[in-house]
Write a structure and sequence with these properties.
Strand content: 15-25%
Number of helices: 10
Largest sheet: 7 strands, mixed
CATH superfamily of the largest domain: FAD/NAD(P)-binding domain
Bound molecules: flavin-adenine dinucleotide
Radius of gyration: 23 Å
Structural class: alpha/beta
Number of strands: 21
CATH architecture of the largest domain: 3-Layer(bba) Sandwich
CATH class of the largest domain: Alpha Beta
Length: 456
Amino acid sequence: MAVAPVGRHMHVVIAGGAYGGLSTALNLLRLSSPGNTISELLDGEARIPHGKPQYVPDYANDKRSPANKRTHRGQMRLDAHTLLSTIKKPKITIIEARDGYYHQVGTPLAHTSSSYTSRPWINYSDFHELSDPNVTVVRGTVEKVDLGSKIVKYSDGSAGNHKTIRDLDYDYLVIATGLRRMWPVVLLAMEKKQYEKDSQQFIKKIENCRNGVIVVGGGAIGIETAAEIKHQHPTIPVTLVHSRKRLLSSEPLSSEFQQTVLDLLRQQGVSVVLGHRVIKSVETITNKHQNGISNIHLDDGTALSADMVINANKGAKPATEFLPEDVLDENGFVKVASTGQLSGAQPGCSSVFALGDVVSSSEGIKLASTAIRAGRGVAMNIASCMMANQPGVVSYHARQMDIAIPNDTLKIVVGGTAAAYAQGKFTFGVDVRKKIFGDDVALSRGLRALGVIMAE
Ligand SMILES: Cc1cc2nc3c(=O)[nH]c(=O)nc-3n(C[C@H](O)[C@H](O)[C@H](O)COP(=O)(O)OP(=O)(O)OC[C@H]3O[C@@H](n4cnc5c(N)ncnc54)[C@H](O)[C@@H]3O)c2cc1C
């Protein structure tokens, strides 16, 4: 006989609705849907309501998934199987500054190819799982968090320029607000319409860069940006300048892989200047045709000029200004325990989780795939906390799984080709690009990892 669920609907607020935030929301929703248990989720058998069976990520065979840490899994399955269906489904509120989900990995192509631009931005109304009555997606910007009183203050973004500050109580809060970077390596717009307009204007500008484009910064983003400009606009001269002797110099990768990426980039037609810092900031001189010519000066006295200089080096800052300083490290990243909970000692920290790019971590390269995986672990840990703290549920002690995912993998698009590194080994080539990134720069792959199938 079915027993009515006990307790109250707990409220989970998620700040940031991209890879990490959406993954947490969708997994929590699946965990708490009638008939689903953590064990079914782990076995890839969970079904999303709305009739038809849906694709569910293969948790059981995903070796790197936090769900497969053996020390916790057996116990969590047993407890969750017994208890999860006995509590009321949580209310989930996602607060997102943009008016849709944005697949950031696709930005270099979105900013160079007008046929792709609109694809990576998906309205939340197209994610039919989010139409669950327990889920609300709020267009707004989180402005402040009071950890002690468990209140989020956010400015309502639905009213255009008019800012209204609203309060929201939470039982559990998830921080998935990522990094802020500089245009044009990422978008600035908060609305799809504006984003499309900005991107199309930018593409037109690139088409007119007959004197070339210089990209400064030889990390993954600089490489992908430079290579995609050259790939989409082969007649435009493109130069990448990097201060170190090797590309990808800050990442834990083998020198053979770094050299391979350099070779691929040069084969794509990008000129690469290594081992020289830019010492003088860009000056733009407008010529008689009203075109801006930008000059940069390198530390060996060389001057380079182009129609456009893109700085892919600077300006990445975690979007965490709404959190108290004592939960952040010196660079503004959120300090977390291995369970994803804030590691501070002040009241309220254990009810707040952080994941993805905002997290202070020495665990390697920050990636969309890592944020999606961490979302599964955070959802399970919140489910476990909810059961332990739900009035009416007796003798359940929250067990938290370790969600820290050391990452020594990198998959990088280099124009028409790609390279993939994992645990010291690597592959590269046109086939690698096809297999890993498909024809949509891994947009579909990312959605599959989130467990989502979009309507055709
Ligand atoms: C050009 C480029 C190429 C990349 N290529 C790859 C790649 O090939 N493979 C890969 O795995 N990774 C790649 N990455 C890295 C990847 O994009 C990040 O690791 C990933 O986006 C992190 O996900 P996240 O959910 O933590 O943050 P994000 O994806 O940045 O999402 C954060 C969300 O929070 C919202 N937000 C921010 N502040 C607030 C606030 N105060 N209130 C409400 N909402 C807020 C933002 O609008 C955003 O939607 C690339 C990144 C860039 C910039």
